[in-house]
Amino acid sequence: MSSFAPPAQGLTLGPLRVDTPVVLAPMAGITNAAYRRLCAEQGAGLYVCEMITSRGLVEGDQHTKDMLVFDELETIRSVQLYGSDPVYVGKAAEILCGEYGVAHIDLNFGCPVPKVTRKGGGGALPWKRGLLGEILERAVAAATPYDVPVTMKTRKGIDEDHLTYLDAGRIAQESGCAAIALHGRTVAQAYSGAADWDAIAALVEHVDIPVLGNGDVWEAADALRMVEQTGVAGVVVGRGCLGRPWLFRDLAAAFAGEQVATLPALGEVAAMMRRHAELLCQHLGEERGCKEFRKHVSWYLKGFGAGGEMRRSLGLVDSLAALDRLLADLDPAEPFPVRELGAPRGRQGSPRARVALPEGWLDDADGRGRHVQEDADETTGG
Ligand SMILES: Cc1cc2nc3c(=O)[nH]c(=O)nc-3n(C[C@H](O)[C@H](O)[C@H](O)COP(=O)(O)O)c2cc1C
After folding, report:
1. For 119-170, how does the pLDDT look when each residue is reduced to its tens digit (9 = 90+)?
2. CA of 328 to the centre of ligand 1 (A)
3. Ranges assigned E (strand) in 99-198
4. What's the rounded Cα separation, in Å, for the pair 39 and 74?
5. What's the pLDDT tens digit per position in 203-256?
């Protein structure tokens, strides 16, 4: 048993203080207002909105506006912004602070999707150190008058031969970012293999700004272990909370020095599912809310005995009344499947032999003034 004592202080991002050093990882299609509220009802932390694009925001794209919705209880509005053009990013940061009252902006430079890296965006962009600096500086310049901290989230690099994270950390620091979050995988790895916590520790050594560690926190104990092993100022939790919003309860307890492992019986899980669906319907209307809810069903039921027919019906649910009827058929006393504890969930995928990049991308590592195409509807952020 480790004698490690978790840090008593919360997380400080420039002028922003968060009681628990835990951040909900932005996840496209998942971390909407309803999900953030659901997680916030469980624990304390910083709950980041789904990624929006700076072009989408600046050009007034309706889909982007629809994603910029906050729950009435969401006192700290935290948004992840994507952009590859310094001018657009600056304008977008200004809009977020001035019109949407956000309290935190996170810039995403970690997306591994070929459609994005092929243009030099996402996880490919930090290779262009000069361009990265320009983007960060513009965002910080726009947010600073509002006292809004800017952070960046990135991966280790394009692949093991083209690592960028240490330079990115230095550039983030020099640009005035309040922190840097590192997902301990390369773009080439996508979600496969294990997150490299040694790289996270190396970044902590390399910079003076707070580092947030990301990758493979499945249980609260993993979060403490990450802090102990790497010295990060906080942890960013993504897939571990899919179908398990109560993980934030365990995380808050763990950072308060208590050992809590919530093991809800199926009845409690069903109540959580109902709450999730209800919040989605409140925010999106019943038809869209139920549709959105469907993708969460298999995560909630992972490891439970519910049969194929039940899962199929829940996966087609179209009203809260229908959901209630189905949930009533689950055995509320069925205990939590403890073999699922610590097990990976959500996307894993396989590594890529080659990362899609623009022609000659690796030949120049500065890229200042370079134009990288960014589409307003870039919606996959991971
Ligand atoms: C469905 C899904 C969507 C994601 N979307 C985003 C995103 O929009 N922005 C981002 O920075 N990362 C995104 N990610 C990556 C996560 O934020 C996180 O970095 C990654 O899942 C590793 O953390 P984990 O091991 O805790 O899941 C996404 C991940 C998943 C599974």
Report:
1. 999 999 999 999 999 999 999 999 999 999 999 999 999 999 999 999 999 9
2. 33
3. 104-109, 150-155, 179-183
4. 11
5. 999 999 999 999 999 999 999 999 999 999 999 999 999 999 999 999 999 999
Residue (of 219, 226, 221) closest to 184 by Cα position: 226
Q: How many CB atoms lie within 10 A of CB 366?
A: 13
Among 329, 245, 186, 195, which residue's Cα sits nearest to residue 30? Answer: 245
pLDDT digits (tens, 9 = 90+) for 357-376: 999 999 999 999 888 888 76
Kindly list the distances between the CA atom of residue 86 and the CA atoms of 26, 149, 368, 371, in Å, as whole numbers in the listed order.
22, 17, 10, 9
DSSP 268: H
Question: From the CA of 25, how far away is ligand 1's center (Å)?
Answer: 6
Contact 97, 142 (CB under 8 A): yes
Question: Phi/psi of residue 236, each to 5°?
Answer: -110, 125
CA dist., res. 107 & res. 112, Å (int): 15
How many residues are recorded in the chain? 382
CA distance 279 to 331: 24
Cβ(289)–Cβ(346) below 8 Å: no
User: Encoding tokens for residue 338?
Assistant: 């403890």
What number does the ligand 1 atom closest to the CA of 51 have? 8
Kindly report the protein residue whose alpha carbon is nearest to atom 4 of ligand 1. Answer: 27
Provide CB contacts within 8 A for 147, sequence distance 6+. Answer: 14, 15
Contact 18, 46 (CB under 8 A): yes
Residues 6+ apart with CB under 8 A from 109: 122, 123, 125, 126, 132, 152, 153, 154, 155, 168
Is the overall model pTM greater than 0.90, yes or no?
yes
For ligand 1, which residues put their CB under 6 angstroms from it? 25-28, 30, 51, 80, 108, 110, 153, 183, 214-217, 237-240, 346-347, 381-382
For the annotated catalytic residues, the residue numbers are 111
Q: Considering only CA atoms, which residue is closest to atom 28 of ligand 1?
A: 382
